């Protein structure tokens, strides 16, 4: 569907967006390839009007390090391959919140393979639902998209005990969202 120039452009811009915030660049090419693939998958959905087939959700928060990553973890765990989810941030952090990682690990969900990344126009356009979590006016708005704003405490700087109630609230909300999308959960 895409020519070599488009593929190169997406790979380069994905690399540049991640490199600007990277603390360690050892795995940056691999992460850039994964991010470019997500962006191209979203663009494919837009170009082929595939939105009617598999529901897609984008979880957004400021740093894409805590709330949106936990939501993505719950979504992928509960929906399996019956739906698609992405996450992003308006000002992506350097790494995922360690307390969020530990809180999710406690319920058997590993989010360590994820990484903070920015939202992009094609991912927003490819989503059926955009869930915002505290990013306010910096979150993107595209007319015709379904938006939900989840008011959740920010786990930044919190210990695991403080993150557990946030994690559990996110699980409840993700389950409700999947039900409204008609996606069977595990």
Can you describe what's shown?
By secondary structure, the protein is an alpha/beta fold. It has a domain at 53-180: 3-Layer(aba) Sandwich (Rossmann fold), CATH 3.40.50. It contains six helices and four strands; from the N terminus they run H-H-E-H-E-H-H-E-E-H. The chain has helices spanning 4-19, 28-48, 67-79, 98-106, 121-126, 160-180, and strands at residues 56-61, 84-89, 129-133, 146-149.
Major beta sheet, strand line-up = 2-1-3-4
**Beta strands, count:** 4
Q: How large is the count of helical segments?
A: 6
> Would you give the CATH topology of the domain at 53-180?
Rossmann fold
Describe the structure concisely for a colleague.
The chain is α/β, with parallel strands linked by helices and about 190 residues long.
Descriptive tags:
186 residues; alpha/beta; Rossmann fold; 4-stranded parallel β-sheet; 4 strands; 46% helix; 11% strand
In terms of topology, how is this protein built?
Layout: H1 4-19, H2 28-48, E1 56-61, H3 67-79, E2 84-89, H4 98-106, H5 121-126, E3 129-133, E4 146-149, H6 160-180
Parallel strand pairs: 1-2, 1-3, 3-4
Helix pairs in contact: 1-2, 3-6, 4-6
């Amino acid at each position: 569907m895409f020519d070599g120039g488009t593929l190169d452009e997406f790979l380069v811009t994905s690399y540049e967006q991640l490199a600007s915030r990277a603390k360690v660049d050892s795995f940056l090419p691999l992460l850039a390839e994964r991010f470019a693939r997500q962006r191209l998958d979203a663009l494919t959905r837009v170009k082929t009007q595939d939105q009617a087939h598999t529901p897609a959700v984008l979880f957004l928060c400021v740093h894409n390090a805590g709330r949106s990553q936990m939501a993505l973890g719950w979504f992928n765990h509960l929906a399996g391959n019956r739906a698609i989810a992405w996450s992003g941030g308006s000002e992506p952090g350097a790494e995922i919140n360690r307390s969020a990682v530990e809180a999710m690990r406690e319920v058997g969900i590993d989010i360590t393979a994820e990484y903070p990344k920015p939202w992009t126009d094609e991912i927003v356009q490819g989503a059926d639902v955009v869930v915002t979590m505290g990013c306010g006016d910096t979150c993107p708005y595209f007319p015709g998209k379904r938006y939900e704003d989840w008011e959740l405490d920010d786990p930044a700087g919190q210990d695991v005990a403080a993150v557990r109630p946030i994690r559990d609230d996110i699980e409840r909300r993700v389950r409700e969202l999947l039900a409204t999308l008609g996606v069977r959960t595990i």
